[in-house]
Amino acid sequence: MVRPALTGTRIRARRNLRGMRQAELAREVGVSASYLNLIEHNRRNIGPDLLGALAQALGVSVDALIEDGDSRLVEGARAAAERCNLDPAELERIDEFTGRFPGWAKVLAETQSRVERLERVVEQLNDRMTHDPYMGEALHEIISAVTSVQSTATILNDAQEIEPDWQARFHQNILQDSARLAEGAVALVNYLDAGKSEETGLAAPQEEVEAWLAQHDFHLPELEAETFDPARLVAGQVELSSEASRALALQWVTQFHADSRALPLARLLPALDRVGIAPEILADEFGIPFDQVLRRFALLPRDILVERGLPVPGLVICDNSGTILFRRGIDGFALPRFGGACPLWPLYQALQRPFVRLRMPLATAGRLGRRFVTYACAATRAELGFGMPSVLQATMLILPAENLTEEAERALLAVGASCRTCPQLDCAARREPSILMTAV
Amino acid sequence: MEKRVLVIEDEPNISEALRFILTREGWKVDVSANGKSMLGTLQADPPDLLILDLMLPDLSGFDILKFLRAGEGTRELPVLMLTAKGQSADRVEAERLGVTRFMTKPFANAEVIAAVREMTAP
């Protein structure tokens, strides 16, 4: 059975074009004029035989009387009607409605389709909020800090008399929690900003690889073996859901295995016991590239470092476009999850002076700036040929620093994560306003 | 006799604020940052009221609630569960396990006091 929506209207239009009267056409196809009138007003379904006869009488093809858009229009309007629990008697007249008011029906169908698309987006976002552990944790942190600030501020505001001890403690708590709140908000903005880039299709595989490595605390025991099959290791990982993330993981795992072979644990551990995390010493001692030592430190088993009282480092790698290729986060040093980091990072300074080994102490910008020591170096990743540009890769190892010398304190470089979340407002390197501009 | 409330909450500043407002309400307040170490005490000498965070470092608030509802002396213990996760699934689960009152963070102090009064009214 053919839906009459618009088909009846088209029959009427074709008949008028041919200058036929309704009664004439009705007689020709063997129906009453009143029945044809109902058809032309889209109030009756049309059987295939009758439609064929009408098409023949009007000198057009059946297809010319039927349009694909009709059913979509009707279904769209029906979905909208069902969502609003429209009276069934009204719903029965949907064909008549779409036929008589095709423009309005189109508006309704498109609105319904838009609502459905938006609902899907909301569902995906909701799913992300529910199942994304990072976001869950970040929000939990923020809500906890807000709870504490709100509760404590209410006490300070409401209580008639508070002992000076309590008062001082509550002031201290508010200060702590507001700093925590600012940190949490910045981390969340960085995270959400990174989410936008998923549309490019670039960030998602990188995130998957990092999440997979993070799950293993950035150490895969297989990497310490003399020989192993990286492709096999990567193929079996359910967390690497796409071909792109498996390819990326394979690239990094192959690199990290080469790093571990260049500096195997048997040789590295005695050196660690002797000099600690001293990349400059170990690179010379073992005659291997500086950036290789930096990567090796960042992917060591945590217990090896903890047992020796050594910190677990962070690591960032970028190419010469500045795009971050790899991140291992470290507490207190925010890493934007996709490009756009602070141009003052030694990572980028290393790109300006390839092969020069840098050691730079720095502090994160803001009142509660944390101290770190960074080691950075850029090396060639690929040569495209004579007269062609080189592809560089810069690597930066980040270590927490507790007791800097006075000299180091004086030379301390204040850096942020990205301009967007950096509280250092008068920075000459700033490329866009900070979201903290109004808050600080 | 002074009524006793135990607050199991791993956020020290929240516990401190709760301690303050409840002390002013006349409660004797004990605070613990984790639930595991308090299971024995809860069973042996249950307080008059328990304020329990849902996300704790060792046992979750749900685990503790389940433990309490299975114990003879703690089956009826009034439990006010606090959570930063306002998801309805958590509320449903808490109710299924027998929570007395479920409150999402951030809460207003007055709201906590009103809930505590209501839950422990004779």
Describe the protein's architecture and organization:
- The complex is a heterodimer of chains A (440) and B (122).
- Chain A is of the alpha+beta class and 440 residues long.
- Chain A folds into 3 domains: 7-122, lambda repressor-like DNA-binding domains (434 Repressor (Amino-terminal Domain)); 132-185; 289-440, no CATH class.
- Chain A is built from 20 helices and 6 strands.
- Chain A has helices at 7-18, 22-29, 33-40, 48-58, 62-65, 68-83, 88-91, 94-100, 102-131, 133-158, 164-196, 203-215, 230-235, 243-262, 265-275, 279-286, 290-298, 302-307, 346-352, 406-410, and strands spanning 314-319, 324-328, 358-364, 371-383, 390-400, 413-415.
- Chain A has a 6-stranded mixed beta sheet with strand order 2-1-5-4-3-6, with helices on both faces.
- In chain A, helix 6 (68-83) crosses helix 9 (102-131).
- Residues 197-203 of chain A have low confidence and may be disordered.
- Chain B is an alpha/beta fold.
- Chain B has a single domain, classed as Response regulator (Rossmann fold, 3-Layer(aba) Sandwich).
- Chain B contains 5 helices and 5 strands.
- Chain B has helices at 12-24, 39-44, 61-70, 88-97, 109-119, and strands at 4-8, 28-32, 49-53, 79-83, 101-104.
- Chain B has a 5-stranded parallel beta sheet, with helices on both faces.
- In chain B, helix 1 (12-24) links the parallel strand 1 and strand 2.
- The longest helix of chain B has 13 residues, at 12-24.
- The mean pLDDT of chain B is 91.
- Chains A and B meet through helix 10 and helix 11 of A and helix 1 of B.
* Protein structure class of chain A: alpha+beta
* Count of individual helical segments of chain B: 5
How is the biggest beta sheet of chain B arranged? 5 strands, parallel
Instruction: Give me the side-by-side strand order of the main sheet of chain A.
Output: 2-1-5-4-3-6
Q: Overall mean pLDDT score of chain A? A: 84
Please trace the helix and strand order of chain A, writing H or E for each element: HHHHHHHHHHHHHHHHHHEEHEEEHE
Total number of helices of chain A: 20
In CATH terms, the superfamily of chain B is: Response regulator
Provide mean pLDDT of chain B, rounded. 91
- Which strand-content bin applies to the residues of chain A? 5-15%
**C-alpha-based Rg of chain A, rounded:** 34 Å
Oligomer: heterodimer
Largest interface in this structure: A-B, 22 and 19 residues
What is the total number of structural domains of chain A? 3
Q: In one word, what is the shape of chain A?
A: elongated
Strands of the largest sheet of chain B, in order across it? 2-1-3-4-5
Number of strands of chain A: 6
